[in-house]
Specification:
- The protein is mainly alpha-helical.
- Helix content is about 40%, strand content about 5%.
- The chain is built from 1 helix and 3 strands, in the order H-E-E-E.
- Strands 1-2-3 form a 3-stranded antiparallel sheet, covered by helices on one side.
């Protein structure tokens, strides 16, 4: 008589492992998604600070901040009618925040010489958490 050796896992062993993996995933996934939202907020804050630095450099060269009509595009491209423009002031265009919405720029601003902000994940004013506005004046 020959012994037949069977190697492998039983169905119950496989189910137990799948349940353990599912439990671990349910504990870890929410924390990872929370970190993703936080990282987008930090990215938006960093981009706003970088744009603020570019706006200050523009002001030092030209003597004023860009108007609302000129917008932020004058930081990387001279429309041709701005004397003393010595840009580009940004290495590349920043047209959208991490959620794909455009940054809002207003000059003169309600909170200072200019207002620069992102409306957050929801794209609407106000909000909390990931939906909170990220502003240059706070």
């Amino acid at each position: 008589m020959r012994k037949v050796s069977r190697k492998g896992f039983t169905l119950i062993e496989l189910l137990v492992v799948m349940i353990i993996i599912g439990l671990l995933a349910s504990l870890v996934a929410p924390k990872l998604f929370n970190k993703l939202g936080e990282s987008k907020q930090k990215t938006a804050k960093a981009q706003i600070q970088m744009i603020e630095t570019a706006l200050d450099a523009f002001r030092l060269d030209v003597g004023r901040y860009p108007t609302t009509q000129e917008g932020l595009k004058v930081l990387w491209k001279n429309p041709g009618n701005i004397k003393k423009w010595d840009g580009p002031y940004l290495p590349k265009p920043i047209k959208a925040d991490p959620w794909g919405n455009p940054y809002i720029y207003k000059c003169p601003g309600d909170h200072g010489p200019y207002d620069l902000y992102s409306l957050g994940a929801d794209g609407k004013p106000g909000g909390t958490g990931e939906n909170a506005d990220i502003t240059s004046w706070e």
